[in-house]
Every structure is written in C-alpha cells, then in structure tokens.
Amino acid sequence: MVLPGLSPLDSLPAKFVNPRLDSAVFSLAFDQVYGSAVQPLRLDVLPLQQPLDARTVYNSTTAVATGNPLVSNFTAVLNRDNIVQLPASNSPDVISVASPQRTIRIPLLKSSSAAPLVNSVFAAMTSNSAFNQSTLDGLWKGVLLRPSESHVGNVISIPRASTRTVNVVTFYFRTGTEGKKRTYSIYLANIVPLSGSFTDGRYFTQLTTDLAGSPLAGLTPQNSLPSSATNGLTYVQEGVGLSTRLEFEGLEALRDKPTLVINRAELLIPVRQLSNGLFPYPSSLYLYEVNQDNQILTRLNGASTVDRLVQQEEPVKLPNGSLILPSSTGVGYPASVSIPFGQNPTQFYSVGITQYLQALLQNRFNAGEVSPSGLLLSPALRNGEGLLLPQQSGAVANLNLNRAQLDANNIRLRVYYSKLQ
Which residue among 14, 88, 275, 301 is least packed, with the fewest CB closer than 10 Å? Predict the structure, then answer.
C-alpha cells in the first residue's frame, strides 16, 4: 500500500535529482513461531496476477492466481537476538540485554526473479511525482507469502502491524552528486490504518489441514468423533477450526424441577500435561450453543442475528463506572474459559456456568429459541457482532494456531444445589 501519511510524496525519488536505487528490502515482523525456532524457516514470495477485490469474500478454499516466484526458498533465521543497552537501576551504568529479533529481512534485488519488478516500481517512483496506489496496482498487484514446498517443522505468525518499521518494502536509494542516502517505503495492507480499521486492508490468511491417515481422518464439521478415537484426548485449536463438543450426562435428575436451586456450577477441563511445547495454550476458550449437527445456534440482538454463547456471570464495569450483570440468555459478554492464575505447569481450564445451567435445566430461553443439544468449546470468537467488551472484540481479529490437548475422560461439571422445602 502507498500510505502518504507514512511515506510522504516529498520523499518520493521523483522529488530528487538523479535518484539511484541501491537495494530494496522486504521486512516482515513475526510475533510467534509454531514449531522449532532453532530451525530456519524457508519461504517463497510470489506476485499476485490481480489485486484482491474489496467486494470478494476470501477464505481457506479461495484460489488466487500468482505469477512465478519472486523469491524462492529464502532462508529466514528465527532465533537471532539483538543486543540492547538498558539503564541499570540506581546506577549511571548500563547493562547489555539480548532481545529477540523478530523481523525477517528479504533483500529483493539479490533475487534475479524479483529484480525486474523492483526496478520497474522504482522507475515509476522516479518518473512520476504523483506516484500513488493506482500506479502501484498497475505494476505490483499484491504478494503471496508461503512456506517453501518441501519445508516442514515450523511456521510463523505475522501480526497486524502497528508501526511504520515492520511489514514493509523499503527502497534504499541515493540522490544528487553527493550521493545522499534516502528511503521510500510501501506497506503491506495489514498495517494499522491512519483512519478506519483493519478490515479496510485487502489481505487474508489461508490455512489447510491434511487429516488423512490420522485418528481425526473421519472428522467433518457436522460429525464429531468420540474421544475414544483419539485415546481419550480432544483438541481445540484456532486457525484450523478444531473444537471440542461437550454433552452433559446425568442432568435429567435435575431437569424441570422448580424447587431446585443451583448454588454453583463450575466446568473443569483438564489439559494433557506438558503438551504445549510447539503450540502455546489458548489464553481463553468460549462455549457456543449448538444443535445435533454442531451448527451454532443464534439469537436476535436488535435487528442483528448473533451467535449464542454462554455468557459470563461476573458483573461488568461499564465505561461510566456503573455495573451490569449479564443475562444468561443475553449477548455481548461471552464467558471466558480460562486457566486459573498460579498454575505451573498448566493443569486445567475452568469457568462458572451457574446461571446458564439453571436456565438450561428449566428450559428458560428466549421466545422461539430451542434448547441446545451440546456446547462447542472453541478458542475462537467467530466475529465481533454483538461483542461489547473491547478486549474480546480485539481478539476476533487475531489469528493464531494456539492449541490445547484436553483430557476428555476427566472433564467435569461440578454442580452444587439446594432444594426448596
């Protein structure tokens, strides 16, 4: 993207005398390595043949046409450190600290396949003092980044950037007879815009899974697999859509009894110990109400239709300082299934569902709503529609591969109840 707010027109090569290109570097920031960080990542950079269309929906089944690779089998070291100096406490001295270098730098001119494109873009920057997004689209339609074909062992997460120094192609050039060094940059579409939102950028991530030959081979969106098929383990993983279906047994003895009061109901979900060496545990999980075919049930929120999620029980503090208690049949405040503070190593997730269970047992749902046949435990919030907490709305935009292996045989719903006399 051409962003005049970050690379003003007066810094264009066309504004200077005798600009000469020295190099062009594609910088990519990453915030997470999935797999081994010791092993270098090998990746390809390909040009798109057509720009992404603002009116087209892109997902993991979308095919986009690309040209021949600009860069093939580039080796990116993932465990390099920078040495930074920090002031020592209560002392004028400084101390040297190793800080992980989370940036990949790809020198484009060193690739014979990328050099013609880079030179043509720089030539347009040199000859056109009104160089803009339309000019760039005519030369460089977009870019596709992918692991090289034979690469296995790790992938990285490229975050939505919030600074001008990451996820950028920087042209380094000299001007005038004195050869003064200058730069001009173009940005990936996932940088924080000066106005609007991330959804304004045209980009998407494509993840595919190959379950053939694994215990999960028979898994489909509509058909769950019993935990016995995976040795008593179930999985939740964002990015690839793995969720765990929960069905409560033994509740019939408590159902439709108006004299019964649920004092407390807590869901305890143990994880397989030390199973997060390659994939970190999700920070939060969420409970979707689903039907027999694992389709997420919905409810009306004004004129909108939103997913039915188990709502949190704790009072929510509003920006004006007042407190609101979410309704078990409401929207906006999904319960966060989280790891209790202080666990080391992580042992289990937990969440209170007292009000929800009371509504479920007494079939107290909104008019026209059916009772769910189960709950879907997922690390992802599918969309931001109806979410009222800023931190949860932000989580919708963050894609990751965080995963948890759950000890399905020991998932427990603890119910404490009283009977009215």
Answer: 88
pLDDT confidence of residue 14:
94
Count of C-beta atoms within a 10 Å radius of residue 330: 16
Q: Provide the whole-model pTM.
A: 0.83
Beta strand 71-76 with 41-47 is: antiparallel
Cα-Cα-Cα-Cα torsion 184, 182, 78, 198, nearest 10 degrees, comes to -20
Of 419, 280, 262, give the one whose Cα is nearest residue 352.
262
Summarize pLDDT for 9-52 with one digit per residue, the tens: 889 999 999 999 999 999 998 988 999 999 999 999 999 999 88
Contacts of 214 (CB under 8 A, 6+ apart): none
DSSP string, 208-237: ----TTSTTTT--SS----GGGGTTEEEEE
Scan for tokens 């509509």, then name that residue: 222
> To 5 degrees, how large is the angle CA 155–CA 210–CA 77?
15
Spatial distance between the Cα atoms of 233 and 281, rounded to a whole number of angstroms: 15
Q: What mean pLDDT comes out for the span 149-177?
A: 83
Both tokens of 182, joined, read 């200058």
Q: Which two tokens stand for residue 211?
A: 């379950």
Alpha helices in 32-112 (DSSP H): none
In sequence order, what are the residues at sequence separation of 6 or more whose Cβ sits closer than 8 angstroms to the Cβ of residue 223? Answer: 294
* Residue ranges covered by each domain of the chain: 9-187, 227-419
**What does the alpha-carbon distance between residue 83 and residue 93 come to, in Å, rounded to a whole number?**
16
Cβ–Cβ < 8 Å for 403, 237:
yes
User: Rounded to an integer, what distance in angstroms lies between the CA atom of residue 272 and that of residue 413?
Assistant: 18
> What is the mean predicted confidence (pLDDT) over 291-296?
94
Q: Are strands 103-107 and 94-100 parallel, antiparallel or unpaired?
A: unpaired
Which range among 68-72, 94-98, 399-403 has the greatest average pLDDT? 68-72
Query: Which residues, 6+ apart, have CB-to-CB distance to 390 below 8 Å?
Result: none
Q: Give SS3 for 315.
A: coil
Q: What's the pLDDT tens digit per position in 37-93?
A: 999 999 999 999 998 888 888 887 888 999 999 999 999 999 988 888 888 777 677
Q: Where do the DSSP E strands lie in 119-253?
A: 143-147, 154-157, 168-175, 180-187, 233-237, 244-246
Q: CB-based contacts of 154: which residues, under 8 Å, 6+ apart?
A: 33, 34, 35, 36, 37, 39, 41, 78
- Using CB atoms within 10 A of its CB, is residue 76 exposed (0-12), middle (13-18) or buried (19+)? middle
